[in-house]
Write a structure and sequence with these properties.
alpha/beta; Rossmann fold; binds 2'-O-acetyl adenosine-5-diphosphoribose; three-stranded antiparallel β-sheet; elongated
């Protein structure tokens, strides 16, 4: 088995070293080594009987708001026990290295920000934010009530997590920002995503069409693999620290 460092072609490092405008897209895979199950990994314990694709929908929340709220509370607790891993930390080093660096994530776990990334575009929201299901307004501060789900202090409707559910559109500003960054980047790095869910899955292909060099980091192959400029198979936590050291060392 080649050591991770052998997996990164020398000419790739040279391209990364001499680029200025870099966009990174991350998926659940970058949080896997922090112990956060990827989206399509089987659920554990009480929630093993439920399919996330069935729970993360407006219909599921309409039918059983308590079930969906409790599922997110369980995921919040799981994630709050997790820490950023070396893959997250390496992306902070890359952000500090490049004049123009944009980190687009599909993850809702907030681990990039916890690691110190500042230019983070959360395409699918953030599990630790709560909003009114009717007014769509974020609720700040700790929610005092014991009801599950709690009610909006303003209008009395159910509160919900500020995450994008299947069938819902992505936050417009975040999507516009992401598309803007992808349209002018020289390098696009796709990390730990199955490249299955639109519109995030289209981003690397837009970058390719715009002439960017596209690198994929994933232990598995994905629909992007055949078209990526480079595809390095391995774990983000192993590969990104090596890549960051080689790119940022003068
Ligand atoms: P998936 O669970 O679909 O895919 C996770 C990817 O991470 C897979 O391709 C794995 O091979 C890869 N992977 C696993 N461990 C890894 C590691 N250590 N290092 C690098 N890669 C690793 O998760 P996403 O692609 O993020 O959307 O899913 C995208 C969206 O689909 C999610 O944001 C969610 C779901 O529908 C919403 O909730 C709206």
């Amino acid at each position: 088995m080649a050591a991770p460092v052998d997996k990164i072609p020398v000419e790739l490092i040279e391209i990364l070293r001499t680029s200025h405008r870099v966009v990174v897209l991350t998926g659940a895979g970058i949080s896997a080594e922090s112990g956060v199950p990827t989206f399509r990994q089987a659920q554990t314990g009480l929630w093993a009987q439920f399919d996330p694709l069935q729970l993360a929908t407006p219909g599921a929340f309409q039918n059983d708001p308590k079930l969906v709220w409790d599922w997110y509370s369980w995921r919040r607790k799981l994630i709050s026990e997790s820490q950023p891993n070396p893959g997250h930390n390496a992306l902070v080093d890359l952000e500090n290295h490049y004049p123009e660096f944009t980190l687009i994530t599909q993850n809702v776990d907030g681990l990039h920000q916890m690691a110190g990334s500042t230019q983070v575009i959360e395409l699918h929201g953030n599990i630790f934010r709560t909003k009114c299901s009717r007014e769509n307004r974020l609720i700040s501060g700790k929610i005092q009530t014991a009801e599950t789900p709690p009610f909006c202090p303003n209008c009395g409707a159910n509160l919900r997590p500020d995450v994008v559910w299947f069938g819902e559109s992505l936050p417009e500003d975040e999507l516009d920002q992401a598309l803007g960054a992808v349209s002018t980047c020289q390098v696009f790095i796709s990390i730990g995503t199955s490249t299955l869910v639109e519109p995030a899955a289209a981003l690397p292909f837009i970058a390719l069409r715009n002439g960017a060099m596209v690198l994929e980091i994933n232990p598995q192959i994905t629909p992007l693999t055949p078209q990526a400029s480079y595809s390095v198979q391995g774990n983000a936590g192993d590969l990104l620290p090596i890549l960051a050291v080689q790119v940022t060392s003068s």
